[in-house]
């Protein structure tokens, strides 16, 4: 496959594909007689794996480690389990932080609606319920 076909099939740009190639995340393609890169069709699945792994929080270094283990057939199940366990712990910590931030922002929104009412400002209908939840009568 030429790089433009890989781009279309994977949704990755050519610079990203070449970067992953240079970083050893995907195998270097063979070269045609005209020196064009000829990627194996499997590279599309490899790129999907890399993007999915990044989306769920794996770093490129972690992905590289996984890919190298796969290539060498030396997949370390214990090491892999530890990597996944660490990622789960990190995600759990981030969820806790996000919940705390959400609570803080919800309180801030309610305080701002109450302040708007106290200053006799018009409060949009979609925000009125937050002032009412804080015990303030809100009118548009």
From TrEMBL:
Keywords: DNA-binding, Transcription, Transcription regulation. It comes from Antrihabitans spumae. The keyword Transcription regulation applies. The lineage of its organism: Bacteria, Bacillati, Actinomycetota, Actinomycetes, Mycobacteriales. It comes from the Bacteria. This is MerR family transcriptional regulator. Residues 1-69 form the HTH merR-type domain. InterPro entries: DNA-bd_dom_put_sf, MerR-type_HTH_dom, MerR_fam.
């Amino acid at each position: 496959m030429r790089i433009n076909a890989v781009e279309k099939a994977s949704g990755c740009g050519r610079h990203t594909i070449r970067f992953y190639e240079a970083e050893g995340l995907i195998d270097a393609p063979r070269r045609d007689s005209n020196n064009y890169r000829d990627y194996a069709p499997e590279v599309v699945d490899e790129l999907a794996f890399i993007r999915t792994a990044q989306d769920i929080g794996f770093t490129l270094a972690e992905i590289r480690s996984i890919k190298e283990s796969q290539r060498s057939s030396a997949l370390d199940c214990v090491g892999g389990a530890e990597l996944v366990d660490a990622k789960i712990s990190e995600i759990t910590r981030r969820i806790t932080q996000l919940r705390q931030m959400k609570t803080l922002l919800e309180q801030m929104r309610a305080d701002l609606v109450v302040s708007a009412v106290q200053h006799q400002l018009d409060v949009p209908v979609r925000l009125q319920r937050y002032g009412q939840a804080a015990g303030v009568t809100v009118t548009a």
